[in-house]
Structures are given as C-alpha cells and as structure tokens.
Amino acid sequence: MHFLCSRAIALSVSVGLAVLLLGSCERDDPKPDCMDCDLTGIPYSPTPHSVLIPADFPQLEIPADNPLTVEGIALGRRLFYDPRLSADSTMSCASCHLPEFGFTDGKAFSLGVDGLLGKRSSMSLANIGFAYHGLFWDGRAATLEDQALMPVEDPLELHEDWANVVDKLIRSAEYPTWFRQAFGIKDKRDITKELAVKAIAQFERTLISANSRYDALFIRFEDFPTEEEQLGYDLFFDFEPSVPDAECGHCHGSVLLTTNNYFNNAIDSVGNLNEFADPGRGKVTGNYLDNGRFRAPTFAQRGADSSVYA
Ligand code: HEC
Ligand code: HEC
Prior knowledge:
Layout: H1 6-14, H2 18-23, H3 70-80, H4 144-153, H5 162-171, H6 175-183, H7 193-205, H8 213-219, H9 227-237, E1 262-263, H10 281-285, E2 294-295, H11 300-304
Antiparallel strand pairs: 1-2
C-alpha cells in the first residue's frame, strides 16, 4: 500500500470504494495532498558524463532514453549499495556483487535474504555495459534496466516488493532530492521503479575494468610477463605453435575475455538434451538445441585487481 495515499484510502473506505480508489493511487492520477512533496525548489541541471573507454574496447552503447549523468550515476551507486532494496534491510545488490571479488560474491551459489540458496552463481559486473547478447547466464534480460528490476522481487534474492521499495525511497530524507537532481522529477511521489533501475544501469555502465595485470602485460605491454604467465597466455589463445592449444580464447576472447555467446561445455552428463536440471539458454529461446547452453563469462578476477572504476 502506498503510504502517501493513506488519506485517500481512509476516505474511500467510508464511501465503500476502497478498491477503486486504491487503484487510483497510481502516480498519473490526481495526487492526494502532500505537505512537502514539491521538489521544484531544488535545481535540476544534470551534468552529462562520458565514460573513459579504453582505446581497444568496443563502443559503449547507451540507450537514448537513459544518458549517463553524474547525478544519475551517483544515485544508481547509492541504490546499488542500499539494503533498503531488500525485504528486511539486510542485503543490497552489493551483497552478491562485491567490488573486491570483481562484483561477484565468490560463491558457487548466492544466499538470498531468507537464507535460501540461489540456483546459480553470482556473475561479475566488470565491463557489464558491453554485454550486448543478453544478461544472466541464460540471457533472459535484454538490458541492464530490465535486469535490475528482477533481483528486488526474486524470492531467492532481495525478496522485496518494488512498491515497498518506492515507498521507502519517497519517505527517505535524501532520495527525493537525488531523484530530482538525476531525473528532474517535480514531486516526491514521481519516484518510480523505472527511474530507480535507470539509475542503477547508469552506475553499472561505469564499471569498466581495464587495469588488471592481464591488461598491463598483454594488452598494453607495459611489463614483461613471467614465464608461466606467457605460457598461460599462449595456451589460452593458441598463439604459439610450439605450445599445445587449450582453445579457451574462442569463447573467452577479445579484450573483454568473453564473446558473450552461449555454449554447452558438456559439464553436465545427460542422456539427451531434455534432461538438463538447468536447461539454461534453452528455457529462454524455447529451442531444445539451446538446452545446456550458458553465456561464456568474463573473468571476475580481472575486475578484482582493477583500479579503473570510472
Ligand atoms: C542474492 C544474491 C544477489 C543479489 C542480492 C543480486 N544479485 Fe545480481 N546476480 C546474482 C546471480 C546468482 C546472478 C546470475 C543469475 C542467473 O543467471 O539466473 C546475477 C546476475 C546479475 C546480472 C547479470 C550479469 C551478466 O553478466 O549477465 C546483473 C547485471 C546483476 N546481477 C545485477 C544486480 C543488481 C543491479 C542487483 C540489485 C538490484 C543484484 N544484481 C542483486 C546474484 C545476486
Ligand atoms: C566452447 C566455449 C568455451 C571454451 C572453449 C572455454 N570456455 Fe570457459 N566457460 C564457457 C562457458 C559457457 C562458461 C559458463 C559455465 C558453464 O558452461 O556453465 C565458462 C566458464 C568458465 C569459467 C568460470 C567463470 C566464472 O565466472 O564462474 C572459467 C574460469 C573458464 N570458463 C575458463 C576457461 C578456460 C581456462 C578455458 C580453456 C582451457 C575455457 N574456459 C574454455 C565457455 C567456454
């Protein structure tokens, strides 16, 4: 229930129209009185932000309706680390995406707010803005904006209701100002989940990792690799004829160390393609030939020692 609508609800109960009027608490309808909800006194002049993209990286595609601004990124960062996004205020996005683990949690399966074990492993968010072939292991979310809607209501993750989250944000001391500065809303009650996920996506697009030892040694040639590092590189990318080919680079290739495509690595032994406990990509495309395929990830460790988080 929308707390700011409580007066409208009390009124409505008296005339027996509770259900009708509850529905009318949506933001487009005339708003009930609100003492200090007007935000127009706070200046709105967002500052465009251009992310520093390393020269050898692909283009960072930014949706036309969600340009990066300093204020939007700052808001997204706050939301990302805010436990108010969870049912019992114990967890945030960052509980499973820790910067020190390349934005994963370093676990095989992540634990949600109810202490329930998730079904998959948390994924690195290093260079996540460049993942253009779908998000999640199975690619079921198309954009970072779509993706960020999901963990809040996932029973195995934050297990909260977006309407409650939005209420908490409206009621908080600072968020209305931050939403005003980022998106120019005129009234506290104009905060929506759609704006919240836009801000989170803006923040995520700045998580660029290009400063690991790998980058220094093999992309920028700033230092000499040890013998073992060179051997690993040659095995990984099949570059040296005298060294056997490990073929890793086909799927974990490019400067991002991933092609972002979906593969079946034959990790699970099954009698046929319909027997996978987790069908992965196949559940999303509906094509049984995609069963058992998962997205080739970038390497979390690469983010872990990175200092470039613009
Ligand atoms: C309980 C742990 C947990 C929490 C909390 C959590 N995540 Fe995740 N995250 C995961 C797991 C596990 C996956 C992979 C799930 C899958 O493939 O089904 C994932 C995947 C992702 C991905 C996809 C990455 C890729 O490479 O495709 C993004 C982006 C992401 N999370 C962002 C967020 C944001 C934003 C929040 C907060 C709103 C959040 N996560 C909260 C565990 C968590
Ligand atoms: C055919 C494509 C392909 C090849 C070749 C390949 N991988 Fe992968 N790799 C994947 C996929 C897909 C995953 C996701 C796990 C899965 O399959 O369920 C993965 C997962 C990983 C992970 C886990 C990353 C994480 O965040 O959990 C590591 C590490 C890894 N691969 C390293 C390698 C190495 C080293 C090689 C070469 C010896 C290699 N891979 C060859 C596709 C590939």
